[in-house]
Amino acid sequence: MTSSPTAVVTGASSGIGAATARHLAAAGYHVFCAARRVDRIEALAEEIGGTAVACDVTSEESVAALAAAVGERLDVLVNNAGGAFGASPVSAAVSDEWRQMYEVNVIGLMQVTRALLPALVATGAGAILNVGSTAGRIAYEGGGGYTAAKHGTQVVTETLRLELWDQPVRVMEIAPGMVKTDEFALVRFEGDQAKADAVYAGVAEPLVADDIAEAITWMVTRPAHVNIDELVIRPRAQAAQHKVHRQS
Ligand SMILES: NC(=O)c1ccc[n+]([C@@H]2O[C@H](COP(=O)([O-])OP(=O)(O)OC[C@H]3O[C@@H](n4cnc5c(N)ncnc54)[C@H](OP(=O)(O)O)[C@@H]3O)[C@@H](O)[C@H]2O)c1
C-alpha cells in the first residue's frame, strides 16, 4: 500500500469532485475516487494514480465496501457527492425529488462520515471537508428541496465539529455559489439543456470546478491545528444569490 497521505473524494466522476481528486493527487495524496459511474472513476484513477471505488453514498452496503477499500487509516475525506433535483415551488413539490436530495446531500454524507471516521481518527490528524452550498445559507423561490438539504449539510457539519471537539479531526465546509460544471444544472433540470444554460446565461466568469478544488485543497492542507470552519466562495459577478451580473 501507498505511503502517501490518503484522501477519499465522493462524487469524483464529474465536476467539483473530479477536479478535487486531480488537485489532491497533484498535492501528493493517493486519492480514492468514489462515485456510481465506474467507467469515469476508473479513467480518473488511472490518470492520477489513485484507486476507483464504486460507491452509492445512499447505500449502507456500498459505503461499507468503500470503508473496507480504504482500510485503517485515512487523512482526508471530501464529502462532495450531492446535487439538486428539480426546482418546483413548495406548492408543487415532487416528494421523491425532495427525498432524493435529502438522501444524497445529508444521509449519504452522514453514512460516509460514520464509516470512515475511525480511519480519520487513526491518523491523528484527519480532515473532513463537506461540500455545502450558498443554498445552505439562504432561501430562494423554487429551491425549497435543495436549500433544505444543503442547510442540512451545514448543520450536520456544525454538529460533527462540536461532537469531535476532543478528537484529532478537523471538520470544515465549503459553500460555493454559482459554479459552472458540466452536469449540475443538467441533472437538476433532467437533461433540459436550455434550462441548464439559462442558469449561467450572460455570466462572463462563473466559478469553475478548478476554483473550488483549489480552495478545498488549500483548506485540507492547512496545519492540523487550523480549522477553516466554513468558506463561502462565489464568482465576482454574484454579489448575492439574487444579484447576478449578466451581460446581454
Ligand atoms: N455547481 C454548482 O453551482 C454548485 C454550487 C454549490 C454547491 N455544489 C455542490 O457541489 C457538489 C458537486 O457538484 P457539481 O457541480 O460538481 O455537480 P455534478 O457534476 O453533478 O457532480 C455530482 C457528483 O455527485 C455524484 N453523486 C450523485 N449522487 C451520488 C450517489 N448517490 N452516490 C455517489 N455519488 C453520487 C455524481 O456521480 P455519479 O452520478 O457517478 O454517482 C457526481 O460525480 C454537490 O454536492 C453540489 O450540491 C454545486
Automatic annotation (TrEMBL):
Keywords: Oxidoreductase. This is SDR family NAD(P)-dependent oxidoreductase. InterPro entries: NAD(P)-bd_dom_sf (IPR036291), Sc_DH/Rdtase_CS (IPR020904), SDR_fam (IPR002347). Signal peptide: none annotated. It comes from Nocardioides hankookensis. Belongs to the short-chain dehydrogenases/reductases (SDR) family. It holds the Pfam family adh_short.
